[in-house]
Automatic annotation (TrEMBL):
Sample GO molecular function, one term: transmembrane transporter activity
Chain segments annotated as coiled-coil in the UniProt record: none
Gene3D superfamilies: MFS general substrate transporter like domains
Name under which the protein is recorded: Probable NreB protein
Location (main, coarse): membrane
Keywords recorded for this protein, A-Z: Cell membrane, Membrane, Transmembrane, Transmembrane helix
GO CC, one annotated term: plasma membrane
Locations listed in the record: Cell membrane
Segments traversing the membrane: 12-34, 46-70, 102-121, 167-190, 217-240, 252-274, 281-301, 307-328, 340-359, 371-392
Topology term for the membrane: Multi-pass membrane protein
Length: 440
């Protein structure tokens, strides 16, 4: 599982990711506590609004940032965005009003919307081997899950000796360390090929989603992922500190339980994905989250029961999110990959834009039990849609015809079949403008 770390550039980027995630994890805990400090039992409403701003920024910025950054120096771009995020984090301890939270979070999320797709799209270029890339995806998921465990645990320990506002300083340090490791990495050079027109770079990823069945199924899975995750990220502080009347440290430990379950799934996934398809693993995870949400109103009646639920929720969450990179890679060539990752980033966060306000508003206006059930319906909808849209039989090599090509065209030499039909790893591109039907 750890063999990708032998690659120097990936090792530096992975370390940068870990540093940024640790800082971000502490900010997540501190932001929830800040919201509770400002609004008490209505903290979910503030968190839901702040996280909805995040989703709007991600949806609106990521495709444009990817298109504009196609010709920018990768290292300069990533380091600059890390420093912007560090500056925002350093300002958060001085927040006293909800509108200030919203303003600073907008800047932070815009920078993250530009950073994350560019970062993700480089990994397939660094690790072209499918097996190594799968391991790298699991390592990235494991890093995120370790953050979900380590950051809340570290936050719980620090909260014993300092106020939550000081946790934001740890976020700033994390981004600075991330920038330093990006500076030290030898990143793949930008292509010298002539760039595609801006509009094509802007919309190319969305076109791939529209024309590729597995990507449409992946989007449905993203809706299920968002429903389960929103319940955890928005309402943990409400359940722990308002319903159970427990401490800030208890909130941090509850988030760590979710991370522990997610980390467990990340560890077992490389072996699991040898035996089952990405579709099966992701649908299984979405089903697990749906069951957790359905049982929430009757099971989450005590703090220990909530911890148990969050462990299971974390396991299902990781099953849905980790294989996504494999599906994206299978569905694009190298030239289209940055646009596709940006489109996935924006579209998946459109799902969070639905789930976050639902989680916050239903919890504030009714109660967290109602939020469990409403989000269960959303999660089940995503799961069923994914199973319907994403074909169960989804081979990499697809037979198809090229009636517009001459018989001597070099492309037809690959995977010849009868009557001019040939087969090869199929993606939508300039030569393949529609998905082949079963008759082809």
């Amino acid at each position: 599982m750890f063999s990708p770390l032998r690659h120097g550039a990936y090792r530096h980027l992975f370390t940068a990711q870990v540093a940024a995630l640790l800082g971000t994890g502490m900010a997540t805990v501190a932001l929830g506590l800040l919201a509770h400090d400002l609004a008490g039992a209505s903290a979910g409403q503030i968190l839901g609004a702040a996280l909805a701003i995040k989703m709007v920024a991600y949806i609106g910025v990521a495709p444009f940032a990817s298109a504009l950054a196609a010709r920018l120096p990768r290292k300069t771009l990533l380091v600059s965005l890390d420093l912007v995020r560090a500056g925002v984090a350093a300002s958060l301890p001085f927040v006293a009003e909800p509108w200030q939270v919203y303003a600073l979070m907008t800047v932070l999320y815009v920078a993250s919307a530009a950073f994350t797709p560019a970062f993700q799209a480089m990994i397939p270029d660094l690790l072209p081997d499918e097996t190594e890339y799968t391991k790298a995806l699991s390592l990235s998921r494991l890093a995120a899950d370790l953050e979900s465990v380590a950051s809340p645990v570290l936050a719980a320990l620090l909260l014993a000796v300092m106020s939550y506002s000081n946790l934001f300083a740890g976020t700033a340090v994390g981004f600075v360390v991330s920038a330093l490791f990006v500076v030290s990495a030898v990143l793949p050079a930008l292509s010298t090929a002539r760039p595609r027109p801006f509009l094509q770079r802007l919309t190319g990823g969305l076109r791939l989603f529209a024309l590729t069945p597995r990507l449409r199924g992946l989007l449905a899975i993203s809706l299920a992922t968002a429903a389960g995750g929103a319940m955890v990220f928005v309402n943990t502080v409400v359940l722990v500190q308002s319903r159970f009347a427990m401490s800030e440290q208890a909130t941090a430990w509850a988030l760590a339980a979710f991370g522990g379950g997610s980390m467990t799934a990340a560890v077992v996934l490389p072996r699991l994905l040898v035996r089952v398809s990405d579709r099966t693993a992701m649908a299984l995870g979405a089903g697990v989250m749906t069951l957790v949400l359905l049982s929430g109103p009757w099971v989450a009646v005590s703090y220990p029961a909530l911890l148990m639920l969050w462990v299971v929720m974390g396991f299902g969450y990781s099953l849905t999110i980790t294989p996504a990179g494999r599906a994206l890679r299978r569905s694009s060539n190298a030239a289209d990959r940055p646009a596709l990752f940006a489109a996935q980033f924006a579209l998946s966060h459109a799902c969070w834009l639905i789930a976050y306000p639902v989680a916050g508003m239903v919890s504030a206006e009714v109660d967290p039990g109602a939020a469990f059930l409403v989000l269960a319906g959303l999660c089940a909808t995503g799961t069923v849609l994914a199973l319907v849209i994403w074909p169960a039989h989804d081979p990499e090599n697809l037979p198809h015809r090229h009636d517009d090509l001459g018989a001597d065209d070099p492309h037809l030499a690959e995977g010849h079949g009868a009557a001019g039909v040939h087969a090869h790893p199929f993606v939508i591109d300039e030569r393949h403008r529609r998905w082949p039907t079963t008759k082809e």
